[in-house]
Amino acid sequence: MDPWPRILQVMICLVLARCDVSAEKCSKGESECPNDDPKSCGCSISRDTSIYKQSGDLKLESVDRYRQTKDKLTPASKTDFPRTHGMVNIPGGSFFMGTNEPIFVADGEGPERFVRVNAFYLDKYEVSNAEFELFVNATNYKTEAETFGNSFVMDTYVSEDVKKKIKQAVQGAPWWVPVDGADWKHPYGEDSSTKEIMDHPVLHTSWNDAVAYCEWMTKRLPTEAEWEYACRGDKVGRLFPWGNKVNPKEEHWMNIWHGEFPNSNTADDGYETTAPVTAFPKQNKFGLKNMIGNAWEWTSDWWGTQHSTESKDNPMGPDRGADKVKKGGSFMCHETYCYRYRCAARSQNTPDSSAVNLGFRCASNKLPKYLHMEDP
Ligand SMILES: [Ca+2]
Ligand SMILES: [Ca+2]
């Protein structure tokens, strides 16, 4: 029996339970939109794995299998594409995490709290398709989207042929559709490919996939505190890594949605979908690219929205949870819908979820032996 209709039905129901549709429909100015709803852009749609586990027709063993073999592998592999796995040094220091002027209160953007972070290394770029391909080729790793056989894509980016096969969408965020065959190699459905975008961020990677990749690179995911500290780059209380101007020097420094979401994308920044991970100026003094915009980025923290105002050293988030924190917003973010391309902004997904606008970059306590440090 084909389990897909039942799976889809249950998945959509559960997705709906996780999304407040009233906020999704708000396309007015931010001041007119509900500010207390963390789901207000449809960007936290999550997969529900329990239905797969209950049905017994799916085994998620790829991460474990990969762990048994990773020591034999070589993260410094050669590729035809320019490597973008370099890391920059983020000196230790302190900062105010979060904001006392939250846009999305229920996201737990606030309150501001004093946080100290030890020095660490962070990938200068989002992980690209080319870099992820090295990992897959070396380990035969199978992502969770490939195992489940589907992932979330915005309908705008899906071909008419693929659209015909889609029977359901997420209520309140109807542009989000579960697409069969969508995965990191087929970001917009089975008839798409990454052939021309190998230098773009890898998408449709779950948190578990991201952890597996970073481990293979002898790296790890950044904590949310590390990510935000790196994003802020010593700019106190600013919205973006460089300050408060959306377009510094009248230029575009990030890849977001321009036009009227979700109906028109004018691509004023040059990109209707993703941009190369090397695109745009460095976003702050650490030399980081595309921290905000382009692809959302997983962090290691469990999701929580109640933060103590006590100062903390190297906080790692709640001990447990259902969702993992992602940061930075994406090419699908528009000020009127998902104004989350800010350092303090945050969102969440279950660790096995994947989507067309979700990727990651890795961190490390020490510079891996096979790497030279990147200039900031
Ligand atoms: Ca854009
Ligand atoms: Ca990003």
Automatic annotation (TrEMBL):
One of its GO terms (cellular component) is endoplasmic reticulum. Keywords: Signal. Residues 85-363 form the Sulfatase-modifying factor enzyme-like domain. The keyword Flavoprotein does not apply. GO terms for molecular function: formylglycine-generating oxidase activity. Residues 1-23 form the signal peptide. The keyword Signal applies. Pfam families: FGE-sulfatase. Belongs to the sulfatase-modifying factor family. This is Sulfatase-modifying factor 1.
